[in-house]
Amino acid sequence: MAQKFDPNHVMLSDTIGKEIADERFTNEFLQSLVNTSLLIKLGSPVEMKAKMERKSLGMGELSNAYFVGEGEKIGTANLKGKDYVMEAKKIATILPVTEEFLEYSWANYFNEIVPVIADKFNKMIDGAAFLGLHNNPFGVNVLASAKKAKKVITGLDTKSIYDFEALTDKEPNAFVGHRTLNRSLRGLTDDVTKTYIFDRANKTLDGISYEELMLADGEVYPENTLLTGDFSALKYGVPNGSQLRLKIADQATLSKIQNDGTVDSGDVHLFEQDMQALRAVFEIAVAIPVDGYFAAISPDAVADDEEELEEV
Questions:
Q1: Are 167 and 161 in contact (CB under 8 A)?
Q2: Rounded distance between C-alpha atoms, residue 112 and residue 265, angstroms
């Protein structure tokens, strides 16, 4: 009978080359992701029984209703619904493992690295879901959805913020920006009340929740870009049974990691260099079933309009 994996007693050195998938680790990782990811904080979870599923928005909304006189037939209303696909995509990271960690139990080691893994995954997932970064595997993102629905305006000023709050099909429940915007936002005042509309201490903009997107190293937030909308329209899901998969290796060649961080310094050969590395893999799906729920302030709105005129 196979022994059950006990992270409190199994050492890292005893599992080199073996994949570890532990329910406790997955739960702790997901909790860390909940605490840091804007996708999970603002979006709506969708239950997934498989890695790819066709979902429905349900019965949707009645297209109309009818007043009915005594003895008259009740009219039949049309139903607006839409199917969409949730497909889980793999996300992975590789972290160096020093010799001292090999003498750690898996429980102690995981406590050390779970914030690091969650931080790296969070920045990659949010960057893709909100801005389409990292060769976005999901095929959709909030900024692109706003552009597709032609709900993009220019100008990071009070009037523009008031205007673009009204662009979305539903009442916006949050703004999403970046720390690089804060200096500009701090000076914005209401023309009538003369009060500031940005309250960073309480994380609000015009009384609506304001969230700052965290990006992975090397990524640049698009200048003067602010997102808003009803973020419940941003769907995410984790397939049932999916776990955070961990594996420590000492034989692999890491072609995407260079020895001194420069492009031409050579691949890292774990065996030759007497090193170990941890690979962490997870799966998550993202979808935006309906465009029109998001709007953006972006300088690209001018460029997009010019391209459309050229095409005409």
A1: no
A2: 29
